[in-house]
Amino acid sequence: MKKSIKIIKILGIETSCDETAAAVVEINNNKISILSNIVSSQVDLHKKYGGVYPELASRAHLENILPAIKAALEKANSKLENIDLIAVTAGPGLVGSLLIGVETAKALSYANGKPIIGINHWLGHIYSNFVEQSPPFPILNLIVSGGHTGLVIMKSHQNIIQIGQTLDDSAGEAFDKVATMLNLSYPGGPAIEKEAEKLKATSYNLKPIRLPRPMLNSGDFNFSFSGLKTAVLYLTKKLGKQKTRRLRAQIAAEFQQAVIDILIGKTLQAAKIHKPKSICISGGVSANIELRKQFKQKVKKIIPQSSIFYPPNLLCTDNAAMMAIAATFQDSRKYSNWSKIQTDPNLKL
Ligand code: KG4
Ligand code: ZN
């Protein structure tokens, strides 16, 4: 952040997947305040497909982007002329979705002569953990969302290295697809979490179900969730008509536990090697209460020298406030004029 500027206001814009989001964030002497955080959700649009339908997502972004920006400015009691910087998600994500946010941000930057910065979506999730808390370095980040799953080591704000990622589906995507298989609602994460809870309330003696934990002991920090998803598919097919309500809750609970075991297992393997002071979990799946509970217990037991951090609930799933916050931690030499900003659906950290 520029040292000479005491108070700056940043307009954040995020359209990398299926949420059209705009936010205004104020930095006053290093204190971050979220003045507005508008998320126009497309959940109803994608519900019947059990996942994001890219063409529909970009059309909806086109319709929603200006109303979302207008609402964010109004809620923050701000006008475009009072904005000091525009921060927009440049990638990774769905290209048709990203382009709407990036080109809108560039047009606003051009028309108002405002500096702009393109932000990596992963950085946004990482910095969602920097509101009202400052996790000490080195930080091990687990980013776990609908579009991404990976591990990132941060030795400082400038030294950020990705050490692992999913080789196929993200954990959130697996939650969404498995929910569809079990006839649960979309998005799948909260629905499976609720279904799994039902099992705790039953006192029946159930025959155990065991699903695989793919790549848990692969010796690297990569993930794979497609085999787990397919295992659920075969299991539901095999059970066919015998699929009772109790069995559904049991599959949901075992699937959720398999994902939790993989996420915690890999993160702790990385923590043993990289010895972080902080472990920061972010992204939509980080809202899962059972995941949080078990993470806390395991970290306390296995690596008590590390502290665990989560974002506020509102910043777990995609939003534009986290993109604006990420921008405040970037070197001000990266702020540029509109012509330098490019969309990159495969952007790396
Ligand atoms: O961060 P996000 O908005 O997406 C991307 O960056 O792509 O996260 C959305 C994902 C969805 O797949 C959703 O099912 C999952 O996060 N999710 C959850 C929970 N809440 C949202 N997964 C597990 N448990 C939850 N409570
Ligand atoms: Zn995300």
- Hetero ligands: 5'-O-[(R)-(carboxyoxy)(hydroxy)phosphoryl]adenosine, zinc ion
Could you tell me how far the N terminus lies from the C terminus, measured between alpha carbons in angstroms?
Answer: 19 Å
Q: Are there runs of 5+ residues with pLDDT below 50, and where?
A: none
Sheet with most strands: strand arrangement? 3-2-1-4-5
Encode the helix/strand succession as letters: EEEHHEHEHEEEHHHHEHEH
Number of helices: 10
The fraction of residues assigned to DSSP E strands is 15-25%
Number of β-strand runs: 10
- Sum up the overall morphology in one term: globular
Radius of gyration: 21 Å
Strand-pairing-aware structural class = alpha/beta
Helix content: 40-55%
- Arithmetic mean pLDDT: 94
The major pleated sheet works out as: 5 strands, mixed
Give structural notes.
- Helix content is 40%, strand content 19%.
- It is an alpha/beta fold.
- Strand 2 and strand 3 form a beta hairpin.
- Helix 5 runs parallel beside helix 7.
- The strands form 2 sheets. The chain has a 5-stranded mixed beta sheet with strand order 3-2-1-4-5, with helices on both faces. Strands 8-7-6-9-10 form a 5-stranded mixed beta sheet, with helices on both faces.
- The two termini are 19 Å apart.
- The mean pLDDT is 94.
- The chain is globular.
- The chain binds 5'-O-[(R)-(carboxyoxy)(hydroxy)phosphoryl]adenosine and zinc ion.
- The site of zinc ion has 6 residues, from helix 4.
- Zinc ion binds next to helix 4.
